[in-house]
Amino acid sequence: MNCLICHTSYNPMVSWRHFLTLEKADCLCSKCRNAFMRINGEICDMCGRPFADLTSHRQGRLCTDCVRWQEDDEWKDVLTKNRSVYMYNEFMKEVVAIWKFRGDYAMAEAFQEEFRREFYRHFDHTFLIVPIPLSAERLYERGFNQAKALAELLALPIHDILTRHHLEKQSKKSRRERLRTENVFQFSGKMPLQDKHIVLIDDIYTTGTTLRHAAKVLRQAGAIDVSSFTLVRS
């Protein structure tokens, strides 16, 4: 079979577990699979940033970025925590480009096993799963919402209760510019959120601004707490 990323022909490792559980063989060759950088070791309690090789940018159990968020009265505790599966290394950058910007929807299959396993390390089925939405314009451009594709890997009910209007790409903006940007998210009002625990699903955690804007809307609608789970942590 051919690797889903590099398209090289390879023989996947198949064990009795695959026959007994009907588990799929890995859709990636070992070279591509091993090129992903899993997040391990000590991390920031709030954003999940690895503390390895990080000495001057942490205060206790938080990184300095999260300390700044917590010192801002407007954003303090808006997002309970973020957890991610992989770091955004050069290989992941290329994979995300193929998947997200070139419209290769099937690429999500490469993340399924580890995405689902890592989710259940930090959350469970009682959380409402809410994917970060794309604007109608961006959805038309890409053909699919990568956050929803990731949410579908969890095989749990998905709640599309956020909408988003179109603005300039957030990746082009600095942290300060992102904070000054109006909140692009709106709560649809499709269901009551009182006493609900929510996990936002997205592809990449960069500064945390997008996720906090979405979390703020859901908290204002009554959610008791909002966390996030992303594929990648940059």
Side-by-side strand order of the widest sheet: 3-8-7-4
Tell me the Rg in angstroms. Answer: 18 Å
If you average the pLDDT, what whole number results?
A: 88
Strand element count? 8
Summarize the structure.
With 234 residues, the chain is an alpha/beta fold.
Layout of strands and helices, then pairs:
Elements: H1 16-21, H2 30-35, E1 58-59, E2 62-63, H3 64-71, E3 82-87, H4 90-101, H5 112-122, E4 128-131, H6 136-142, H7 146-152, E5 162-164, H8 175-180, E6 185-187, E7 197-205, H9 209-220, E8 225-233
Parallel strand pairs: 3-8, 4-7, 7-8
Antiparallel strand pairs: 1-2, 5-6
Write up this protein:
This protein has 234 residues and is α/β, with parallel strands linked by helices. The protein folds into 2 domains: 1-35, no CATH class; 74-85 and 94-233, Rossmann fold. Helix content is 32%, strand content 16%. The protein is built from 9 helices and 8 strands. The chain has helices spanning 16-21, 30-35, 64-71, 90-101, 112-122, 136-142, 146-152, 175-180, 209-220, and strands spanning 58-59, 62-63, 82-87, 128-131, 162-164, 185-187, 197-205, 225-233. The strands form 3 sheets. The chain has a 4-stranded parallel β-sheet with strand order 3-8-7-4. The longest helix has 12 residues, at 90-101.
